[in-house]
Amino acid sequence: MDSLPFMKMHGLGNDFVVIDSRGRAPVVTPELARAVGNRHLGVGFDQLAEILSSDDSTVELVFYNADGSTAGACGNATRCIARHLMSESGASEVTLRTERGILIGQDAGNGRTRINMGPPILEWQNVPLAHEVDMLRLPIEGTPVATGMGNPHCTFIVEDAEAVDLETLGPKFEHHPLFPERTNVQFISLLSTDRIRMRVWERGVGVTMASGSSSCASAVAAARRGITGRRVDVVLDGGELQIDWREDGVWMTGETMHAFDATLSRAFLETVR
After folding, report:
1. For a Cys-Cys bond, which of 99, 108, 222, 270 suits 228, CB 3.0-4.6 Å?
2. What is the DSSP letter of 255?
3. What's the CA gap between 20 and 87, in Å, rounded?
4. Phi-psi domain of 110 (left: phi exceeds 0; alpha: psi -120 through 50; beta: other)
């Protein structure tokens, strides 16, 4: 390739490189994702999303983490791309195929976008966990909650999420043997019965300013433990998301930003091995 156009987007500071490959074969490899994800030698991102053509939805999405590993879901990137597609077509609703199945994206008004992230995964073998345990109180110090939202999630309910040493505890629990595919790690504290504070360590990335699938998992965990209802505001380092766990799935609503368009040069692409 002589060059490769991309879009830079973010949802509350959770930032993405988006490559539109509709009408052609996929171009992203783990090696390319790692190179682009390097914030000093490439572009930098929390996740990379490649948009592909789809026969049964508006588009198909494939997600990569900054370390080149794939992610089954990325809620904020899905919201950003849904907003881009709606702006492009003038539609008020789009469908996006991911590993989670076909997700619905809608215009929520006032520039905000909502996504149905699908029902939470509440069976240990499908999260997946290494063996059967009490999903509401894992046999881990702090008795976190396990939830699947396309990615595995481990949610600790603490007195003060601000006081947690996320840089130390995040990688420790990401690689816990109970999670054979690693896990996203959240620490949440209760602000009120319909409002929680969340800080997050994402597998394959590290500390991020926000995480859509983690916000959904945290809201589900809080509701299942009985400290909130099924509709909550999640306060993140980069802003707020509204999570509504309905019968048809977990709906997430918030702001998005399409920051800029740019192009990867031929010289850069030639360095990728």
Report:
1. 222
2. -
3. 15
4. left
Q: Are 70 and 12 members of one domain?
A: yes
Based on DSSP, count helices (H) and strands (E) in the chain, helices before strands. 5, 17
Q: Are residues 97 and 23 part of one domain?
A: yes
Q: Residue 162: which domain range? A: 124-247
**What is the sign, positive or negative, of the torsion defined by CA atoms of 205, 210, 211, 217?**
positive
State what percent of residues in the chain have pLDDT above 70: 100
Residues 54, 145 share a domain: no
Instruction: Supply the DSSP symbol for 151.
Output: S
- Alpha-carbon separation of residue 79 from 29, 122, 170, 208, 213 (angstroms): 23, 24, 25, 17, 11
**Which pair of tokens denotes residue 137?**
């109180």
List pLDDT tens digits, range 234-263. Answer: 999 999 999 999 999 999 999 999 999 999
Count the neighbouring beta carbons within 10 Å of the beta carbon of residue 8: 18
**Both tokens of residue 270?**
């030639």
According to DSSP, the β-strands at 59-65 and 70-71 are antiparallel
Say whether pTM exceeds 0.90: yes
Long-range CB contact pairs, 244-251, < 8 A, 24+: 245/120, 245/216, 245/219, 245/220, 248/116, 248/119, 249/116, 249/117, 249/118, 249/119, 250/116, 250/117, 250/118, 250/119, 250/120, 250/149, 250/216, 250/219, 250/220, 251/114, 251/115, 251/116, 251/117
For 94, 105, 181, 251, the CA distances from 88, given in Å and listed in that order, are 11, 14, 36, 23
Give the SS3 label for residue 149: coil
Looking at the fold, whether 238 and 151 belong to one and the same domain comes out as yes
Residues 189 and 107 in one domain: no
Domain count, the chain: 2
